[in-house]
Design brief:
With 174 residues, this protein is of the alpha+beta class. Helix content is 32%, strand content 34%. The chain has a single domain (12-172), classed as 3-Layer(aba) Sandwich (Aminopeptidase). Helix 1 crosses helix 3 (44-61). The model has no long low-confidence stretch (mean pLDDT 93).
Length: 174
């Protein structure tokens, strides 16, 4: 089943990352609360590199980063992710999410995680998905478990940054 550039869940719309999202993504990645557990605030040059890498990912794989909006509002709420990621030299496909603080604590991360899992298994035909979370981010660990993922191990990611790896196999899903 092919991917759509846009789709919706009960409370959110997902839009494929495009050139038109540059300013919103810069604002997102400049927010210290948003970026606290996902690598820290990015400079304009780092955001531009992230942006270009993720536009190429869409071109190569047909999925990637989505900009999230509440269905009844137009403002960017956050991002949802389904993309390739190297984990200790192994090519994996990760699910992920991030939100502006005003959207925290409302169950939206679980909604996004489940939607990304469904897209990974139903649309991309993958057999396994991973998620990466800061070891100290217990809220994200809780969300990933609610989405069906299980803690696998901690590992050193991106220049030695310690992360927790979660995994879900298609055979254990749904």
């Amino acid at each position: 089943m092919p991917f759509q550039d846009a789709f919706a869940t009960a409370r959110l719309t997902f839009e494929r990352l495009t050139e038109g999202h540059r300013a919103e993504m810069r604002r997102f990645q400049a927010d210290p609360d948003v970026m606290r557990y996902i690598g820290g605030v990015r400079s304009p040059a780092q955001t531009a590199a992230y942006f270009e890498r993720n536009l190429r990912h869409w071109d190569q794989y047909g999925y990637g980063v989505w900009v999230l909006r509440e269905r009844d509002r137009g403002d960017m709420a956050g991002v949802g992710v389904l993309r390739h990621l190297l984990v200790e030299g192994e090519d994996e496909v990760e699910i992920g999410y991030g939100f502006f603080p005003q959207y925290w604590g409302r169950g939206l991360a679980t909604e996004v995680a489940r939607a990304c899992v469904a897209r990974g298994f139903d649309h991309a035909g993958l057999d396994s998905l991973v998620a990466v979370a800061d070891p100290g981010n217990s809220a994200s660990h809780h969300v990933l478990r609610k989405a069906g993922m299980e803690y696998e191990r901690d590992f050193d990611h991106d220049e030695g940054e310690r992360q927790s790896l979660f995994r879900l196999h298609r055979s254990a899903w749904g």
